[in-house]
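Researcher: I've got a protein sequence and the SMILES for zinc ion. Could you write out the 3D structure of the bound complex as structure tokens? I'd like something to compare against our soaking experiments later this week.
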Amino acid sequence: MTATPVGIGVDVGGTKIVLGVVHDDHSCSRLTRIETARRDPAWVVAAVTGYARELEWSLPVGVGAAGAADPEGAVHFGSFIAWNGFPLRAVLEAELGVPVFVQNDVTVAAWGEYLLDPRRRSVAVIAAGTGVGGGAVSDGVLLTGAGAAMEIGHLPVSLGESLCACGRRGCLESIASGTSVARRYAERTPDRATTRPLSSTDVVAAARNGDEVARAILAEAGAAIGEAAALIASVIDPERVVLSGGLIRGGGPEILAAARAAFARQVRVPNDRGVPIIELSTAEQDPIVIGAGMLAAARNPERAG
Ligand SMILES: [Zn+2]
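Model: Sure. Here is the predicted complex with zinc ion in place.
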């Protein structure tokens, strides 16, 4: 049995776009990664239309974008691409002549994670990459709210007093994003001269080499994520909480232990099922690409289901 291509999935992140053809068995082919060259919507449109036109199939397109997507598929509030309400769905549909679906990137990642383990019908995703975002499926239904459900980056957490990009102190994102991890490490190690700006990859590598400062910063990121996971568990009662995103892919084991410890300390659920599982994403391919492609296929009027 050959898997049938049903949609194009697009992950528009802070530093790159990942595109792939998604098949009806939730697999993915022709995965392409493009480093972000310009932080404006026109560049994103050119990248997506260029990829779609190279394929011999005319497939619906699903986009998971870092930002808040409204019900019309316009994107707002992205920290990395200057969306400013850009009508991404309308522009792509006009350019490509296929149905287009646009949603927040971690929201579609939650759909991808749900499809990859549909026995558990309620799942929350916390994605720590350039920023921190969240997504959730509740009893088989993707939570979108009015467009910005599970925007968890600015949940207050008790750890630290770091100044966040939003202007407040103590937000989850100010401690647990890749950007924050790199910044906090640099602040605590001013004597370590570097020829280029530090990244979270450098911090993970330092932690693995036994650097105590790096280890502490990753543990704090994990503890903040665990604390946020406990808050989320109280609100939506997931069966599992999945950690994903670039920082987690790099430093997952170091972060997970601290996240689990903080989660266990703080989570309270009023049922006899026990507390949710908290685990790293096991998706072999980008869950945003898979979730976005499958959502586009499901909402394509020509191929319902
Ligand atoms: Zn904030």
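Model: The pocket of zinc ion is lined by residues 154, 164, 166, 168, 171, 173-174 (CB under 6 Å). Residues 212-236 form the longest helix (25 residues).
Researcher: Great, I'll pass this along to the crystallography team.
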